[in-house]
Amino acid sequence: MKSLVRENDKLPWSSAPGRLHIVTFGCQMNEYDSQRMAQMLMASYCLTPYMDQADLIIVNTCSIREKAEHKLYSLLGRLKRFKCSNPVLKIGVAGCVAQQLGAKLFQRAPQVDFVVGPQGIYRLPMLMERLQGGNDRLHDTGLQGDFQIPYIDALLPRKGDVRAFVTIMQGCDNYCTYCIVPLVRGREISRPVEDILREIGSLVEQGVKDVTLLGQNVNSYGKNLSKCVDFPSLLLEIDRAFPGIRLRFTTSHPKDISDRLIGCFGSLSTLCEHLHLPVQSGSDRILKRMKRRYSRAQYLEKVKKLRNVCPDITITTDLIVGFPGETEEDFRQTMSLLEEVRFDQAFAFKYSERPGTAAVRFQEKVPEEVKSRRLTRLLKLQNQIGLEQYGRLQGSVCKVLIESCSGPKVTGRTRGNHVVNMEGREGLVGRLVNVYIERACHHSLIGTIIH
Ligand code: 5AD
Ligand code: SF4
Q1: pLDDT single digits (tens) 247-258
Q2: Residue 148 has what DSSP assignment?
Q3: Which CATH number is associated with domain 282-392?
């Protein structure tokens, strides 16, 4: 759970009469959408880091696992109190749970005034007008296949950010059998190249130096656009237009990692040496049941090709344990895949049944305690591998882009996406420095700036 702005953030000046607080659950796509909502409402509301001072609170939700939904209901319970002390307060729910439940949310949480899905956020000002006009309990959860993501000038709510995200496509056509995303985010829709370039340009002008392109499956970018463009050509255009930035993207589907895309890691100087490549399972039987459309061997082949082109590439992944039908032998295959690939980091989750997905009908559910035990074993192995992977950088000098400062410490990032902590001062934020890596921790490095 994240607030869009924090206490000491430098906010752009705004004379708007209302106070808006946005809480975000879930992925970076949601964080991006939260920024868009703030921008859509900027004429009437300025952001506040204090929930109890807001007259509009929007909770941007995630429904990827059941746990994320529980967190929403517990927060909505707490928000009820604020309505007693502030009668003008309006509460909105946005994002994936909003899309999934629509008007049903009003029954479950009567304190909610409006509900907007991922496309509805672009119609927020109209919805707010209707709400101010006395209409109650409004919901906008339409999902049009021909929807076009409107261009909104990128104005960062937090000035001075070095890193920013740019959505290049939303939705997903893959329908993996465990996943609710295609049901709540709709079909794949790509943004026009010109909008993406314009948005990056505006971010770069504001001082952003590290840009991550976002989408549920960025590799299939361009499918619905009239202009013949695919993901590698988009990367090439960005590389040409902004040669000074660090460029990243997430998330990728292994089946769509083409040789051309792999080649980009060797040929585009802006493209950072990091790829998040969710594998989900190491067992062919489970991959098939998940409808992932690649085999273990095909995944390993892509990793090999990537490392041939770019030997130091950081590879991270997502894994699910306890998918229906996962036997001890299937799980062992996942463990052996971890040892074979040696991921720098892995995000592992217990399978969570999501309403409306194909896997709901699958038999042989794995008991919760078995899932928990497998997750613990997997994390133990991955922690050890991750530490060894990070440890390989010990004693080397890395180019680190400083992102933030807190007291006498600064935090930055390598091109390979390793977070580095070191001593430094505020003036270093946004600067590229050489850092001697002293020590590796779990998921971060400790270093000293060298001059
Ligand atoms: N249960 C558990 N994990 C899931 N993910 C997606 N759907 C589910 C689910 N039903 C995980 C996948 C995906 C990541 C974003 O969340 O690993 O890559
Ligand atoms: Fe979900 Fe699969 Fe689409 Fe990823 S590719 S968002 S896991 S359906």
Answers
A1: 999 999 999 999
A2: -
A3: 3.30.750.200
Q: Looking at 68-77, 230-239, 354-363, which range is the least confident one? A: 68-77
CATH number of 160-272: 3.30.750.210
For the chain, give the percent of residues with pLDDT over 90: 81
209-236 exposure pattern, b = at least 16 Cβ within 10 A, e = fewer = bbbbbbbbbbbbbbebbeeebbbbbbbb
Please answer whether residues 351 and 324 qualify as being in contact, where contact means their C-beta atoms are separated by less than 8 angstroms. yes
DSSP readout, 226-254? Answer: SS---HHHHHHHHHHH-TTSEEEEE---G
150 by Cβ neighbours in 10 Å (0-12 / 13-18 / 19+) ranks as exposed
- CA of 30 relative to ligand 2 center, distance in Å: 15
Quote the percentage of the chain above a pLDDT of 70. Answer: 96
The boundaries of every CATH 3.30.750.200 domain in the chain are 282-392
Mutate to test the pocket of ligand 2, among 62, 169, 173, 176 (most ligand atoms within 8 A of CB): 176
Fold of the CATH domain 2-140: Rossmann fold (3.40.50)
Average pLDDT value for residue range 177-197: 94
pLDDT band at residue 213, thresholds of 50, 70 and 90? very high
Mean pLDDT (the chain, rounded): 93
Q: Residue 263 to residues 216, 266, 302, 325, 329: CA-CA distances in angstroms? A: 22, 5, 12, 37, 35
Domain(s) labelled CATH 3.30.750.210 in the chain stretch across 160-272
Q: Compute φ and ψ for 409, nearest 5 degrees.
A: -110, 145
What atom in ligand 2 is closest to the CA of residue 175?
8
For domain 397-449, the CATH superfamily is Nucleic acid-binding proteins (2.40.50.140)
- C-alpha span between 275 and 339 (Å, rounded): 18
Distance from residue 57's CA to the centre of ligand 1 (Å) = 28
Residue 354: both structure tokens together: 């999501």
CB atoms within 10 A of CB 146: 7
Dump pLDDT digits (tens) for 283-304: 999 999 999 999 999 999 999 9
Give the predicted TM-score (pTM) of the model.
0.94
| Residue type (1 letter), 420 | V
